Amino acid sequence: MEWKTICDTSEVGTGKSKEFEISGKKILVSNMDGKFYAIDALCSHMGGELGKGKIEGKDVICPKHHAKFDVTTGKVDKNINGFVKAITRKDAKDLSSYEVKEEEGKLSINI
Ligand code: FES
Question: What is the CATH number for 37?
Fold first, then answer.
């Protein structure tokens, strides 16, 4: 693991997420009330691009089949019903999350 500087803090607005490619990995960086978080940006079900997903509270919704992941932890939400329930119960796994630090207006990720 090593710290990599990725962007200015102002690039990820409050309540928003943005995808970055770091060391060949796609990472989703989110700003929740001024605190920054990083998780894998590819859905563990079939690789949906979470950078194109909708943010709902602390969750990002996969644009492909609508699995939900907590952007602060990477955990998949298993408490949803209907068609998505079958996917998230069986196939979608928790995503990796990464430490983020903020220094002099820049964000770095331990990856
Ligand atoms: S690819 Fe994300 S829910 Fe299927």
Answer: 2.102.10.10
Domain count, the chain: 1
Give which of 29, 30, 37 is closest to 15, Cα–Cα. 30
Per-residue pLDDT tens for 40-95? 999 999 999 999 999 999 999 999 988 999 999 999 987 776 666 666 666 789 99
Q: How far is the CA of 91 from the centre of ligand 1 (A)?
A: 9
Tell me the CA–centroid distance for residue 23 and ligand 1, in Å: 23
* pTM for the full predicted model: 0.92
**Residue-range definition of the domain harbouring residue 62:** 3-110
Q: How far apart are CA 46 and CA 81, in angstroms?
A: 19
CB 67 less than 6 A from any atom of ligand 1? yes
